Automatic annotation (TrEMBL), chains A, B:
Source lineage: Bacteria, Pseudomonadati, Pseudomonadota, Alphaproteobacteria, Sphingomonadales
Protein name (database record): Competence/damage-inducible protein A
Organism: Tardibacter chloracetimidivorans
One Pfam family it belongs to: MoCF_biosynth
Signal peptide per UniProt: none
Gene3D superfamilies membership: MoaB/Mog-like domain
Domain MoaB/Mog: 9-171
Amino acid sequence: MSERIWTAGLVVIGDEILSGRTQDANIANSAKWLNVQGVRLAEVRIVADLMDQIVSAVNALRSAHDYVFTTGGIGPTHDDITVDAVAQAFGVPVVIHPRARAILADYYESRGGLNEGRLRMARVPKGAELIENATSGAPGIRMGNVFVLAGVPRIALNMMDALSGTLEGGRPMLSHTIGCSVAESEVAELLLKVERAHEGCQIGSYPFFRDGGVGANFVIRSTDPHQLNLCATALMEGLKAHGWHPVDGGI
Amino acid sequence: MSERIWTAGLVVIGDEILSGRTQDANIANSAKWLNVQGVRLAEVRIVADLMDQIVSAVNALRSAHDYVFTTGGIGPTHDDITVDAVAQAFGVPVVIHPRARAILADYYESRGGLNEGRLRMARVPKGAELIENATSGAPGIRMGNVFVLAGVPRIALNMMDALSGTLEGGRPMLSHTIGCSVAESEVAELLLKVERAHEGCQIGSYPFFRDGGVGANFVIRSTDPHQLNLCATALMEGLKAHGWHPVDGGI
C-alpha cells in the first residue's frame, strides 16, 4: 500500500541561532505541530539574515516540498528582510497590505501610533494573504505554499494555531518508544530484523550515557497504528528473548 | 580594511530532530566552539537519515564554506549511514580504518568484544583521518574539509575539544549586548543609524515579551574590539537621548 506523504521544509532565519546566542525552539515546535497536521518536516535550513541565502533556501525548499515555513526576520528593524526575500523568490514586488496596516494601526493606537518601523510589518509580497496572531499586532504571511512566521517562539506558535486544520495533509505519524539499558551496538542486528519485518515502520536508535551506564531509546514510527503495535510488540519480545529488560514507553 | 572571514557549514543528520522528539544541542554548541576558533557558522542544514539528502547537503556546503561539520549517524545501527554518505560525496569507497578498529577492540575488550555492529564504527571514507574522543570508543572522522562528529552532544563536544586549535581561522567574533524595555519598533531607525556609523559592526535586535511588557536585546557583533566598543557606547547614548533606560549587558 503506497501512501501519499506530505512534506514541509523549514527555513530558520537568524544570525542569533548561527552565533549560538539563542537556542532555537521553532524547529521542534513546528515539527510537532506539522505532525499533527499530517505533514512531515523533511528538511531544515538555518541561514543568516542575508538576502541571497534566504531567497535560495526558500526556492530550493518550495520546489522540493508541499509546504515551506520560515521563522524570523519579520519585525520592524533593518535586519528584518524575510518579506523582501520571499517576494524576490516569487519574483513579485513588496506592497503594503491594507488589512495588515489596519491591524497594526489598531494595535498601536494605544501604544504610540504607527511609525516607519511599525509600518514595515504591513509589507507583504504582492498576492500574499495574512496569518493573524493574537500575541502581537504583526501578522504572518502566506504566499503560495510558503508560510512566513515570526521568530519569537510564542508568536510563531500562535500563528501555527491560526493555521491548524487548514493544511492538506496525510495521516499523522505515530510513534512508540521502547527504552533499554543496553549498548545499541549489542542490538543493531535485532533492530534491523524487526524493522524489515514490519512494512511502513522505521526504527530509530538513540543512545544515551547516564549515571555511568549506557542505554538507548528505540523509537518506532509509522502512520499505521496496527503495524506500529505489531512492530513494538516484536521488538519488546526480541529484546526479552536476548535477556535484556526493555521498558515500554522509553527511559 | 577587508578581512578574510572563515566560514563553516553544519549538517545535522537525524530523524529525531525533524520529528521534534529531540531538541538539538549541537547547533548552539558548535556555533560557540567555532567562534572561539575564529570560524563563523554560516549555514546549517538538518536532514533525515537518507543517503541522497546527506550527500547533497555535504556537497553543497563543502564547496560553499571552508569547513563542514556533520553531527549524527555514526553509531552501530542500520540507520547510521553518515560514513557511507560522506564517502559517496567524495566519490571514494568505505574502508575499515586499522587504528579505529584497534581503538574499538581495546574499548570493547571489557564490554563483550567487537561484533558486526561495533565494527561498523571503524568504517571510514578511504583517505580519512580519525578524530579521537575520550567518552566512547568510536572516533570521529576528518575527510578533507569535512569533519564527521557524533550526534550525542557530549561526545560531539569531546571531539570538538580534540580539534581545538587545529583549524585555520580568522579573528573571533566579539559581541556586546544592550537590553532595553522598549518596543523594537520604537528604535528601528536609531539601530540602523548607529550600525551604519560603525564599520564592521552588525546590530541584531531580539525582541521579547515578558511579564506583560515588551523589550529587546540589541546584540552588536564585530571582530574589532575598538569598533565594537565605540558602537556600544553610541547605542547606549542614543537610547538614553531618546529617554529610554538601556541596560549594558542585556536584560
